[in-house]
């Protein structure tokens, strides 16, 4: 369904081994500004991205061939007369690419955005859905009454 690749995952793993900076199990050594969940629900594939603080008009979702790209921009506060005391939330443009399998219908993707979560619903293509196969053969033998 979904082929996930992260070109930095192997680099992070190698750096952790070489420099001894192993992160606890299940964590990344660098923060991911666009974490996601992906799962299949019935006849659709659902992908949810956490994008808190991102305006809906600052999100772009594109599909080219079977590559889904999500770009989002977290902009600085509009008020330029503030003196920032702590700034831990990353700003700027973030993107993720997902390589979708041939079994998904990329022409009918639906997107919604609620409470800082972008949810994409990708239908499973008709040809990939399970179906019954009729078995053809000779007619059943007739019963013989004795």
How would you describe this structure to a colleague?
There is one protein chain. Strand 2 (36-41) and strand 3 form a beta hairpin. This protein has one helix at 9-19, and strands at 2-3, 36-41, 44-50, 59-64, 67-74, 92-100, 110-114, 117-123. 8% of the residues lie in helices and 34% in strands. With 146 residues, it is mainly beta. The radius of gyration is 24 Å and the shape is rod-shaped. The strands form 2 sheets. Strands 1-6-5-4 form a 4-stranded antiparallel beta sheet, with no helix packed on it. Strands 2-3-8-7 form a 4-stranded antiparallel beta sheet, with no helix packed on it. It has a domain at 33-77 and 88-126: Sandwich (Immunoglobulin-like), CATH 2.60.40.790.
Name the average pLDDT.
Answer: 80
> Uncertain segments of ≥5 residues (pLDDT<50)?
21-30
Main sheet, how many strands, which sense, barrel?
A: 4 strands, antiparallel
**Beta strands, count:** 8
Q: In the CATH hierarchy, what is the architecture of the domain at 33-77 and 88-126 at level 2?
A: Sandwich
Structural class: mainly beta
Strand order of the largest sheet: 1-6-5-4
What is the straight-line distance between the termini?
Answer: 58 Å
In one word, what is the shape? rod-shaped
CATH topology annotation of the domain at 33-77 and 88-126: Immunoglobulin-like
Strand content: 25-35%
**CATH class wording of the domain at 33-77 and 88-126:** Mainly Beta
Number of helices: 1
């Amino acid at each position: 369904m979904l082929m996930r690749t992260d070109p930095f995952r192997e680099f992070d793993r190698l750096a952790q081994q070489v420099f001894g900076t192993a992160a606890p199990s299940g964590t990344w050594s660098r923060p991911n500004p666009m974490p996601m969940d992906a799962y299949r629900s019935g006849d659709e594939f659902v992908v949810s991205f956490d994008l808190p603080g991102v305006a809906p008009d600052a999100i772009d979702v594109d599909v080219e061939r079977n590559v889904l790209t999500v770009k989002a921009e977290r902009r600085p506060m509009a008020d330029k007369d503030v003196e920032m005391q702590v700034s831990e939330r990353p700003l700027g443009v973030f993107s993720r690419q997902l390589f979708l399998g041939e079994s998904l219908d990329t022409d009918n993707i639906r997107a919604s955005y609620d409470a800082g979560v972008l949810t994409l619903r990708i239908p499973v293509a008709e040809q990939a859905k399970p179906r019954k196969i009729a078995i053809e053969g000779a007619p059943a033998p007739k019963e013989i009454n004795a």
